[in-house]
Amino acid sequence: MNIGQAAEASGISAKMIRYYESIGLIEAPLRTGSNYRVYDADQVHVLRFIKRARTLGFSVEETSRLLALWQDKSRASAEVKAVATAHIAELETKIAELQGMVGTLKHLAHCCGGDNRPNCPILDDLAGPNSHQGH
Q1: Which one in 29, 78, 107, 120 has a CA-CA gap of 20 to 30 Å to 45?
Q2: What are the residues whose beta carbons fall under 8 Å from the beta carbon of 64, sequence distance 6 or more?
Q3: Alpha-carbon gap, residue 31 to 61, rounded angstroms
Q4: Backbone angles phi, psi at 19, to 5 degrees
Q5: Which residues contact 87 (CB under 8 A, 6 or more apart)?
């Protein structure tokens, strides 16, 4: 199949497929005489693996590591679990940071009158301490 068909079958855009190829995440596929990429079912399976890993928030580097482990039939599952566990810790940190942001914004939105007056605690907070309004 061509890159458009591989993109549709994998859920990854053709542009991202080319990018993954350029950074070495996936191997370059065979090309036709007119230089079109030709993907087979195994390559689409790899693309689906990448799509799922990226959907779960794994970085390109983590995805590369997981892909290598997936393709290594002598791998130890402990290695895979270590990558996943480290990613879980990163996600939990991000969740805590996002919850902190939500809390701060809720407080600021609550303090804002939301009326026709120019005074706004949200903008005052963004400007920081000792700032002059309008600068």
Answers
A1: 78
A2: 25
A3: 27
A4: -60, -50
A5: 56, 57, 58, 62
Residue type, 120: C
Residue 30's beta-bridge partner residues? 38
Residues 56-108 have pLDDT tens digits of 999 999 999 999 999 999 999 999 999 999 999 999 999 999 999 999 999 99
Q: How many residues appear in the chain?
A: 135
According to DSSP, residue 29 is labeled P
Domains of the chain in sequence order: 3-75 (1.10.1660.10)
What are the Cα distances from residue 44, in Å, to 5, 16, 65, 109, 135? 9, 13, 18, 47, 53
C-alpha 124/C-alpha 129 separation (Å) is: 8
